[in-house]
Specification:
Blueprint (H helix, E strand, L loop, with lengths): L6 E9 L2 E2 L3 H12 L10 E2 L5 E3 L2 E3 L5 E7 L3 H4 L6 E4 L2 E11 L7 E7 L4 H15 L4 E11 L4 E10 L3 H10 L13 E2 L8
Antiparallel strand pairs: 1-6, 1-8, 2-5, 3-6, 4-5, 7-8, 9-11, 9-12, 10-11
């Protein structure tokens, strides 16, 4: 893995009640307003929050975590976010102290949305090409087509599970991600324990 940029997860405890359903874009803007150095690197990824969907948006659980995946060299810039209260579309989000988490290899990984304009067949073909470039071998399961609204556009793509990954390949995929718009959580892979629920 000598050709891979070392990445780590910057993890904050968070407290709040409600966020808008399409929170990633607005949340990213709130984060980089306080830590602008993070905005210069498009490999910085916002991991999706674990939430519960409600009519007014998404609810945060009591032990929610906000996680940024970023190059080790940028970790210090995330320190500026520790203890801050952010406003996300009129909703308060309180960040706790920052801790660093090393990325671990898992045989099955999941991304909620990998950006794609193609249909499912074309998407899987494009993913196969990207994985070959990364020298990553694994089995693909294409999930639901998803969309994320931003200020001036709508990002579209598919959820994706990749399984039967060897440890080095798993780390390489988590470090590199797939596709565009990593800042909004697209193409960011996290461990996945089951391959039957692809939502």
């Amino acid at each position: 893995m000598s050709n891979a940029i070392a990445m780590v997860d910057a993890v904050f405890d968070v407290s709040g009640e409600l966020l808008p359903a399409d929170y990633p874009y607005i949340l990213w803007q709130a984060l980089v307003a306080r830590a602008p150095e993070l905005a210069v690197d498009d490999t910085v990824g916002l991991l999706p929050l674990r939430t519960a969907v409600t009519e007014g948006g998404v609810l945060l659980p009591k032990r929610a975590k906000l996680t940024l995946r970023l190059p080790q060299c940028l970790f210090a810039y995330a320190q500026a976010l520790s203890g801050l209260q952010l406003e996300v579309a009129g909703h308060a989000l309180q960040l706790g102290q920052l801790r660093q988490r090393q990325i671990q290899p898992y045989p099955t990984l999941h991304a909620h949305l990998v950006v794609a304009d193609a249909d499912e067949v074309g998407f899987l073909s494009d993913v196969a090409v990207l994985l070959e470039r990364l020298e990553v071998e694994g089995k693909l399961i294409c999930g639901m087509r998803n969309a994320l609204r931003c200020a001036d556009r709508t990002i579209q793509g598919y959820s994706l599970v990749i399984h039967d990954l060897k440890p080095e390949a798993s780390l390489r995929l988590q470090y590199a991600g797939l596709g565009a718009d990593r800042n909004y959580g697209c193409g960011v892979f996290v461990p996945y324990k089951a391959i039957t629920d692809l939502d």
